Amino acid sequence: MTATSAAMPILHQASTTPVDAERREQMLSEPGFGRYFTDHMYVAEWTSEHGWHDAVVRPYGPFIVDPASSVLHYAQEIFEGMKAYRHEDGSVWTFRPEVNAQRFQRSAARMALPELPIADFVAAIEALVRTDEAWVPAGGETSLYLRPFMFASEVFLGVRPARHVTFAVIASPAGPYFPGGVQPVSIWLSEDYTRAAPGGTGAAKCGGNYAASLIAQAEAIENGCDQVVFLDARNSRDVEELGGMNIFFVQADGSIVTPELNGSILEGVTRASVLDLAGELGHKTSERPITIDEWRDGVASGDIVEVFACGTAAVVTPVGSLKWRDGELSSGPDAGPVTAQIRSRLLDVQYGRCGDPHGWMHRLT
Ligand code: COI
To answer: Is the CB of 311 under 6 A from ligand 1?
Structure first.
């Protein structure tokens, strides 16, 4: 099905206990990340017999999850990360929703989950944000973070693709992902753990990839770092990605390099957008393998002048240092000029402060 096909009908059940306006404004004034949730959620069900059905925007609240639901045992689950942005004139927009919808379909295919039509994915986002529009913060770099997800809800312990699946979208007002704001983050090199292997699920946005990153992320924190970077599983040589973000390197001649998609790296929507924007800003861009030695030697020799991470939640975040068991190096205390330029260009598009020649923005209200 394509983006133009009709989405399934959506029932609306309004919350009878919405958060009062004063409390909501308090939450919006300091949202943090992933702490507060709006009054409603979108939910739809799929069964192998009836396909997608029973779409509803209903009051936010717990699911009743049977202890034998297969997601609890075999982790058949995928998710997306998106944002709704309030523009200066009060209207609310999201960024490239059909690209997230397509990735969601690819993740579903990898995890043997049913494909959700793009029209239903986009309609779910529209319905939830229109219902909870008052929860979209205004000002600064705030947004309403949107979390579509799908999980195996069949009550069955046999190991096979579930025949009952639930799709839902929740929304959470968000400030910067990193508590320090746009300060450069420090990165710990994971030498004992990999995130994804060839033929594995690295390119799918499934919960298991993030679960697998947590022990390495904990090691990063123990070593005083904000984030972890993973190398390829085969050779422990090529830089792949951080715990939940892609990585870019700016070279002395202004060219920009990011690890090429190799089946175990997540195809970030921000990653793809940064490549386009950087090219338009006059930077030569390339996607190719980058070894950890090239990173270390490049910073030491001055061939690599800036490093940054990117993702929906993190936007574009400068990387200030890399630390490993036997050493560390610093790429500077501030965001470099190229990182800052790309970051502002992306945010200008997302917040409607400049033209949108690609037609990336999708109006929600
Ligand atoms: C995002 O950037 O939206 C992500 O999904 C990364 C992380 C918050 C899990």
So the answer is: yes
